[in-house]
């Protein structure tokens, strides 16, 4: 079943190259931004952790 889904997805990507590349690029940019924001939040929350009553 998964093999069929992959085959259909690859056919769709091959037929609509511009549309697929825009979607894949947008997904990659969105994931990168999410990771960067998560790293920034983790850094800000770890600031002054060595104080007892921070």
Describe the structure.
The protein is an all-alpha fold. The protein has one domain (2-45). α1 (2-15) packs across α2. The termini are far apart. It is built from 2 helices and no strands. Helix content is 80%, strand content 0%.
Instruction: List low-pLDDT spans.
Output: none
Distance between the termini: 53 Å
Count of the separate structural domains: 1
Mean pLDDT: 91
Overall spatial form: elongated
**Helix coverage percent:** over 70%
Tag the structure with descriptive keywords.
single chain; 54 residues
In short:
With about 55 residues, this protein is mostly helical. About 80% of the residues lie in helices and about 0% in strands.
Map the helices and strands.
Elements: H1 2-15, H2 17-45
Helix pairs in contact: 1-2
């Amino acid at each position: 079943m998964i093999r069929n889904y992959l085959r259909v997805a690859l056919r769709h990507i091959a037929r609509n190259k511009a549309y697929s590349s825009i979607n894949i690029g947008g997904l990659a940019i969105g994931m990168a931004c999410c990771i960067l924001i998560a790293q920034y939040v983790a850094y800000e929350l770890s600031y002054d952790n060595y104080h007892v009553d921070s």
